[in-house]
Write a structure and sequence with these properties.
The chain is of the alpha/beta class. It folds into two domains: about 100 residues, 4-Layer Sandwich (Metallo-beta-lactamase, Chain A), CATH 3.60.15; about 80 residues, TIM Barrel (Alpha-Beta Barrel). About 15% of the residues lie in helices and about 25% in strands. A seven-stranded mixed β-sheet has the order 6-7-8-9-10-11-12. Helix 4 links the parallel strand 9 and strand 10. The longest helix is centred in the C-terminal third of the chain and has 11 residues. The mean pLDDT is about 90.
Length: about 210
């Protein structure tokens, strides 16, 4: 997810799609990580190919009481990476509330995953709730945002499309987009039916 404001941009997580982010005209780039599982950080290897070197914000201290740079070190050094840490961008700590590149960013630790994750809110524009089962704190965290992006892994497993719809109702958000779907789903459209009103997230989706 890329949030743009003029020549500044905020990328939420760094999966395999990071190299395809639309960054034309961006002069200041920040990458905010929700956690450190490979599917959310593997795109960091492509940072040297981006048109601008980003600053990376991660929840190591917030969620694990460990420095984020220490946690990411294996991914950012030989033999996993041929690049220097300088080429891969500086790593900073994500905190509960801070301004990052002019964006008001709020983070909340979510405990209902294999490892803790961070829910992310960017002003009143957007809240990202991923890699967590239903969490009663998610609705208040996302209250009143224009767009709620919520994981809906399946119809039945945690987190389900029904969980996403429940958080949507509790938050009073303007729209619900289902993300981080199980790629083995035969009919992803069934998630929309279970979480109506909702839409499926996809590469290139634009939220105004």
């Amino acid at each position: 997810m890329c949030i743009r404001d003029g020549d500044r941009a905020l990328l939420l997580d760094a999966g395999s799609g990071l190299p395809r982010a639309e960054l034309d005209g961006v002069r200041e780039l920040h990458v905010v990580l929700t956690h450190f599982h490979p599917d959310h950080v593997i795109g960091l290897h492509a940072v040297p190919s981006l048109p601008v070197r980003p600053t990376i914000w991660a929840p190591g201290a917030l969620a694990y009481s460990r420095p984020s740079e220490e946690i990411l070190a294996p991914l950012r050094s030989s033999p996993l990476s041929p690049f220097t840490r300088e080429a891969l961008g500086p790593v900073r700590e994500l905190s509960a509330r801070q301004v990052i590149g002019g964006f008001e960013v709020t983070a909340r630790v979510q405990e209902r995953h294999h490892d803790p994750t961070a829910g992310i809110r960017v002003g009143d524009f957007l809240a990202l709730i991923t890699d967590t089962g239903y969490d009663p704190g998610s609705g208040p965290f996302a209250r009143g945002v224009t767009h709620l992006l919520h994981e809906a892994w399946s119809l039945d497993d945690d987190p389900s499309a029904a969980d996403a719809a429940r958080v949507f109702r509790e938050s009073g958000a303007g729209t619900l987009t289902l993300i981080h779907l199980d790629p083995r789903l035969a009919d992803p459209g069934a998630l929309v039916a279970a979480a109506a009103p909702a839409q499926l997230g996809y590469d290139g989706l634009v939220l105004e």
